[in-house]
Amino acid sequence: MDARFRRVPALIGLMLMALGVVQCGSALPAGCPPACAGVDLSGLDLRGIQLAGADLSSADLSRSNMQGANLRGARLIGTILVDTDLRDADLGESVISGAMMTRANLNDARLDGATITSADISQGSLVGTSLTGVAFQVLVLSQADLTGLVLPVTEGQHTVLNRANLRGANLHAADLRGDYLSAADLRGADLGGSMLDGVIMNLVDLTGANLRNASLNGASLFGANLDGADLRGAQLRGAYLIGAVLRGADLRAADLRGARLVAQQPFRIFDEEFDREVEQLSALQLTALQINADVSGARTDGGTRWPDGYLPPDSVVLE
User: Which of 51, 170, 289, 297 is least surrounded, with the fewest CB atoms within 10 Å of its CB?
Assistant: First the structure.
């Protein structure tokens, strides 16, 4: 083939790339960036766009493809990012407040140094994303895919994680007090040394999770699955475990004094807290969970502290 013709595909590719840049640039109004407040950039192909330091307050970026976009230091206050593709985007040092980010894809996005306040990322995806170094408050991640999420030790930061996929997540030594984890998938997650006192985590799946030395005093674990979980040295004083499954769990040196393990009538889940996940159960499902905690096959030792008057079944393994 003539060398001139061999260069044609490459030339066409360059022309298409140039066309994309022109189209992307033409979507931005004059002065944007940095002044992009209130602009409508919804449904556009904005892959790799440079918006570092831009003010995108109240801007509409819903359904846009922003893979690899540079949003470092940007202001995203009241910004609409519903169904937005932000994979591999750089959001480091950005300010995100009151943003609507439902179903946003933030897989492998960089958020180092970002400040997030009252953001709703429910049903979104943050696979491979780290929240280490992120300052956040009231972060809604209900039904989000957070597989492998790295969550730092935090205090005074509240996250709604109901029905979130947190399988294998690294939550070691995290402060989750005040958070909501009901019906979340935490199978195989590392919660060792974490602070979960008083946390509402009914119907949560903690199969095979590491909860060694975790503090769950007063936590509500109604109907929770802790099958095979490592609870060595865990503090479960006053925890609510009616309907919970702890088959094969490691309870050596665990403190369960004052914990509710035996179902009683009249049946009450908790006195003050309202849990939408439990409220949505059918009468049949709720009745099926009004049973004693299942500790069959659980590993215990002389350091295991049971509630006063509680007699563990013969199926418990005493080592």
Answer: 297
